[in-house]
Amino acid sequence: MLATARIAGIQGAKRTSELIPLCHQLALSSVTVDFRLDDASIEITATATTTGKTGVEMEALTAVAIAGLTLHDMTKAVDPHSVLGEIRLAAKSGGKSRRQVRPSTAAVVVASTGVAAGTRVDTTGPHIAEWLRERGYHVGHTVVADADVAAELSRVIDTCPAVIITTGGTGMSPTDQTPDATRALLTRELPGVAEAIRARGLPHVPTAALSRGLAGTAGDTVIVNLPGSTGGVKDGLAVLDKLLGHLVAQVDGGGAHE
Q: Is 38 a residue of the active site?
């Protein structure tokens, strides 16, 4: 019975992303499920680990829940009054804790191997930075090669800006990595924003449909991917012009909810 519940708990941990909306699929290094029996109860403990830069407490909690439900299913005929009791996080180490963002701060990250190498001119980053300054943000602006965008986004997240807007690296080229790097950081996705940005460009540029740009939040930081073209950035900022202030206010706990 316990062996079956242990297997169920491990399977549950591995499928957490399928069970909990907006919970990302993680590469788990290990999952253990242990039991301590006494005369009237069975205590279940699960431990999950990963080498990724995120917490795996949801995977451990899911393992306990699924193992407990499995035990309940197998014992209900003997004890129909059995209950699944409190489930709680006992300890967590590593990962990243949710930190308070710095109000009215923003970062622009340009993903372009050519611009980083000095063979192309950065035409989109300065435009985005100026657009943000006009809306009251103190802006940092960095340029990195496509291969370095994941490391740069992680670094920028650690500085806790309220907003991060990226430009470049959103297409289907093998070197385009911005959406992939962004997805690994998001805690909540805003698919409607990304779709609105794509839709804005479609009447004029059919290839706008190929953009894989994402939008969402990493903790309390809003992140939006814009294309690397000047037209794509113009379209994206036109969409954000009507949304960004309200979005940042809502993430901060304010803003209207109508």
A: no
Q: Which residue has the higher pLDDT, 39 or 234?
A: 234
Given 73, 158, 180, 241, which residue is catalytic?
Answer: 73
The Cα–Cα gap between 126 and 32 comes to 50
Q: Are 63 and 31 in contact (CB under 8 A)?
A: yes
Tokens 């000047």 label which residue?
230
Token pair recorded at residue 91:
């300890």
For helices 57-75 and 2-14, what crossing angle results, to 10°? 140
Lowest mean pLDDT among 76-90, 109-123, 142-156: 76-90
User: pLDDT tens for residues 131-158?
Assistant: 999 999 999 999 999 999 999 999 999 8
CB atoms within 10 A of CB 221: 26
Please report where in the chains the tokens 């957490």 appear, as a residue.
Answer: 16
Distant-in-sequence contacts of 112-117, Cβ < 8 A, 24+ apart? 112/143, 112/145, 112/146, 112/168, 112/169, 112/228, 113/145, 113/146, 113/147, 113/175, 115/143, 116/143, 116/144, 116/145, 116/148, 117/145
Task: Give dist(CA 193, CA 210) in Å, integer.
Answer: 16
